[in-house]
Amino acid sequence: MAAPRPPRTDTWWRDAVIYQVYPRSFADGDGDGTGDLAGVRARLPYLAELGVDALWFTPWYASPMVDGGYDVADYRAVDPVFGTLDEAEKLIAEAAALGIRVIVDIVPNHVSDRHPWFRAALAAGPGSPERERFHFRPGRGERGELPPNDWPSQFAGSTWTRVPDGEWYLHLFTPEQPDLNWEHPEVRREHEDVLRFWFERGVAGIRVDSAALLVKDPALADFREGVDPHPYIDQDGIHEVYRGWRAVADAYGGVFVGEVWLPDAERFARYLRPDELHTAFNFAFLACPWEADRLRRAVEDTLAELAPVGAPATWVLCNHDVTRTVTRYGRADTGFDFAAKEFGTPTDLALGTRRARAAALLTLALPGSVYVYQGEELGLPEAEVPLDRIQDPMHFRSGGTDPGRDGCRVPLPWQAAEPWCGFGAGAGPWLPQPEGWSSYAVDAQSTDPGSMLALYREALLVRRCEPGFGDGPMTWLPAAEGVLAFRRTHGVSCVVNLSDAAVALPAHSRVLLASGPTAADGTLPPDTAVWLQA
User: Fold this and answer.
1) Number of C-beta neighbours around residue 132 at 10 A
2) Residue 109 and residue 280: Cα distance in Å, rounded?
3) Is the peptide bond before 229 cis (omega within 30 degrees of 0)?
C-alpha cells in the first residue's frame, strides 16, 4: 500500500492533477467483463504511486447504459454493474486515506427515460404536473405530426420523440435521455439535494456534464444559425442555477468543474465568477492542433479570459469523448473536431507518441490544474473497435458514418501475460482489446525507465516537489519559430520544440526532466519538451 501524502490546502483544485476514471474500462473486480468500483479500489495504490491529487469518476449511478451511464435513472444509487453505494463510500474513504480526493459526475440536462419522473410523466398524460418537469409539447402540422421545432441534436438525428398520446418530448441527446425543464422549481430542488447527498458522503467535487445546456428558450423557438442568443446553449438564466449550486458547495467545502463548450471567451468566463463554478474544462486547448502558434494563442486566450474572474486554468489533452492523444498527434490533422471523425484515418503512432510525451510536459508545466484521462499515462492509442462491437449511440445516430467514442474507452491493460491483459478474470471485456494491447500494460511499463508511465510518474513527482509549478504566473521567453518557451517561478522554465529542426536551449543549471533524449550537442530535438532549472 502506498504511503499517504500530506493533505492539500482548501485551494487544492487550483493546481491539482486530476485523473479521470471511466469505471467500465478501468479494472474489473468481479470478473463479469465490466470495470467496477471493486476494481478501482484494488488499484488505488497504483493511482497513489502515479501521484495524482484527485479522481474524477464518470457516472456510476443506476442507468440502462444507453449512453455509457450519462442516462441516469437514480442519482442516489450505484448501478449494480459497478457495485453498491456502500462500496462507493468505502472507495471515497480509502482514496482519502491515500491523500486522493474524489470528484463525481452530475448530468443535469437530462435523465434516463427509466427515471421515475419520466415514467410518471408518460403515465400522467398531456397537461399534467408530471410533464411540467420535462419539455412536452404538441407537434406542428395539421395533425401534430411534425416536431415542435427544428433544433439540432448533439448526437445527430431529431431532438424530439412523439409518444402515443400525440405529444412530443425534447431530448438534445438520445430519445432515452429526456431533457429536464430547469424552469421548474422541483427540478432545481432535486438537484441541489443530490449535490448534498454526495457531498455528505465525502466527495470533494462535482463535474457538471453539458453545463451550458440546461436552460432553454421558453418559447422553444426554431433554431437560427448565427443568431444570438442560442435557444438552448448558454441561456442567461443558467447562471441563477449555478449560483444556487455554489451556495450548496460552499457549505461543504466542495468544488465544481464544468463541461462548458463555448467559443465566446467572455461568456465562458461568466460561469467562473466567484459565486458560480470553480473551474471549467479548457476545450480550446484540447482541440488545438500540434502547432506552436495555435497552442500559444490557446494558452494566452485561456489565461486572459480567466484573469478577470480569478479562476484557474484547466489543461486537458484527452477525455472519454475524444480521440486519444497518441493517435491524434500522429495524424496529418492533429486537431480535434467531432464533425471530422471518420473511419480509417491513418496515423503515425511513433510520431504521435513523441508528441504526446512532449505535450504531457507542456500541460503539466502550465499554470493551473491538469486532467489526465485514464490510459494517457500508458500512451494508449485510439483502438479500432470492430463494427459489430461498437456500442456508442453517436455511431448509430450518425447512420454509421461516425466511428463514435468507443475507441478511447477500451479497457486498460494491467498485466501483459494475463488474459485480457489483467483487466479482469472471467468474461472477456465489454469492449475488445486490440492486438498488441499487452505491450502497453502497466507491469511492462513499470520496469521500463523510458516508458510513458515512467515519464508521467516522474513528471508528477517533479511537479509536486518543485515550487515553481502549479498555480501562479508564467512569462513567455524568446524562442525560435515553432518553439514554445516560458518561465514559471523559482527559476523553472519549459521549452517545447514543435519545429522540424533541433533548437538550442536557453541557459540553465540543470535539466529537471525531458520528454525524450536531447541531442549530443545539447540541443532539443523536434517534438520534444524539457523542464529546466535556471
Assistant:
1) 16
2) 17
3) yes
Cα four-point dihedral sign 522, 528, 533, 534: positive
Between the CA of residue 32 and those of 36, 38, 73, 427, 428, what are the distances in Å?
9, 12, 22, 5, 8
Dist. CA 468–CA 103, nearest whole Å: 26
Cell numbers 433554431 correspond to 223
Number of H helices, E strands in the chain: 15, 18
Instruction: Say if CB 77 and CB 85 are below 8 A apart.
Output: yes
Known catalytic residue: 259? yes
How does DSSP assign 520-532, residue by residue? TTSPBPTTEEEEE
Catalytic residue (choose from 79, 259, 276, 376): 259
Which long-range contacts link 36-42 to residues 24+ away (Cβ below 8 Å)?
Answer: 36/81, 36/82, 36/83, 37/78, 37/82, 37/83, 37/84, 37/87, 37/88, 37/91, 38/83, 38/87, 39/424, 40/91, 41/87, 41/90, 41/91, 41/94
What 3-state class would DSSP assign to 242?
A: helix
Cβ proximity of 222 and 159 under 8 Å: no
Dist. CA 356–CA 382, nearest whole Å: 13
| Of the candidates 238, 304, 318, 243, the residue with the CA atom closest to the CA atom of residue 278 | 243
54/225 Cα distance (integer angstroms) = 40
pLDDT in tens, 357-402: 999 999 999 999 999 999 999 999 999 999 999 998 889 888 899 9
d(CA 458, CA 530): 13
> Sheet containing 510-514: which strands, arranged edge to edge?
475-476, 483-487, 492-497, 528-533, 510-514
Alpha carbon distance 197, 191 (integer Å): 10
User: 3-state class of 146 per DSSP?
Assistant: strand
Q: How does pLDDT run across 160-210, given as a tens digit for each residue? A: 999 999 999 999 999 999 999 999 999 999 999 999 999 999 999 999 999
Whether 15 is a known active-site residue: answer: no
C-alpha cell at 316: 486537458
Phi, psi (5° rounding) for residue 409?
-115, 10
Q: Is 313 left (phi over 0), alpha (psi -120 to 50) or beta?
A: beta
Gap between the Cα atoms of 11 and 176, Å rounded: 38
C-alpha cell at 182: 430547469
Active-site residue identified among 30, 67, 113, 209 = 209
* Residue that has been written with the C-alpha cell 444507453 in this structure: 66
**Beta pairing partners, 531:** 494, 513
- Using CA atoms, how far apart are residues 429 and 383, in angstroms rounded to an integer? 14
For the chain, the straight-line distance linking the first and the last C-alpha, in angstroms and rounded, comes to: 36
The answer to whether the pTM exceeds 0.85 is yes
